[in-house]
Write a structure and sequence with these properties.
By secondary structure, the chain is an alpha+beta fold. It has two domains: 35 residues; 167 residues, Glutaredoxin, CATH 3.40.30. The chain has five helices and ten strands; from the N terminus they run αββββαβαβαββββα. It starts with a helix and ends with a helix.
Length: 209
């Protein structure tokens, strides 16, 4: 009788422990699911590309809790200027919250076309579209080097017979201060500035904790 009672008691204890473990697992899963954190897509490769003054810029040394990287070329007829225009709208929103530039949020533009995108052309492009260079880094490296870098980010690039470039529409990257890609966006008219702004703020808040 005592043996049966002991076995029954053990069953209740085991059942209670299993119930607690299941509840803990369920709570942990939902806490993770509802945390709102952006997942890590990939670790970004480090790279060094000259800026408009010809000075080598190593990505891992660029300050900021959040980075947005755009691969582009100035002779692009539609997607690139539309993307940069949207970037500038986000830039202005970040300025209002004192989050643009310095140790906060920084933007990078990397051209595929160094032959035509001279420093003068890129500066004129930036001025025309309203890019505030206090929070932008414009990079201009060797063509093959830049195409190879884009491929490391999962971006497919092809040079056309007329000298222009065709690349995947998902050439817009959000990275945290630990050099990790946290989200990839479509460019041009497919951009959702509100979503991007929300994601930037989420990463900025994450870095501040």
């Amino acid at each position: 009788m005592k043996m049966k009672s002991l076995l029954a008691e053990r069953k209740y204890v085991i059942a209670a422990v299993l119930l607690v473990l299941c509840m803990a697992a369920y709570w942990s899963y939902n806490s993770f699911k509802d945390s709102g954190k952006l997942p890590v897509v990939m670790n970004a490769p480090d790279f060094t590309i000259p800026d408009l003054d010809g000075k080598p810029v190593q990505y891992s040394r660029i300050s900021g809790d959040v980075h947005m990287i755009e691969f582009m070329f100035t002779s692009c007829p539609d997607i690139c200027p539309t993307t940069t225009y949207n970037f500038v709208q986000i830039q202005e929103q970040l300025k209002k919250q004192s989050l643009f530039g310095s140790s906060k949020v920084n933007f990078l533009a990397i051209t595929f076309d160094p032959k035509n995108d001279t420093p003068k052309v890129l500066r004129n492009y930036a001025s025309k579209l309203g890019m505030d260079l206090s929070g932008w880094t414009i990079l201009r490296g060797e063509e093959a080097e830049t195409i190879n870098l884009a491929k490391k980010f999962g971006i497919s690039v092809s040079k056309m017979p007329d000298g222009s470039f065709v690349h995947t529409n998902t050439s817009l990257l959000l990275l945290d201060g630990q050099q990790r890609v946290r989200k990839i966006y479509k460019m041009g008219e497919d951009m959702d500035n509100q979503v991007i702004m929300k994601d930037i703020i989420a990463l900025q808040d994450e870095a501040a904790k």
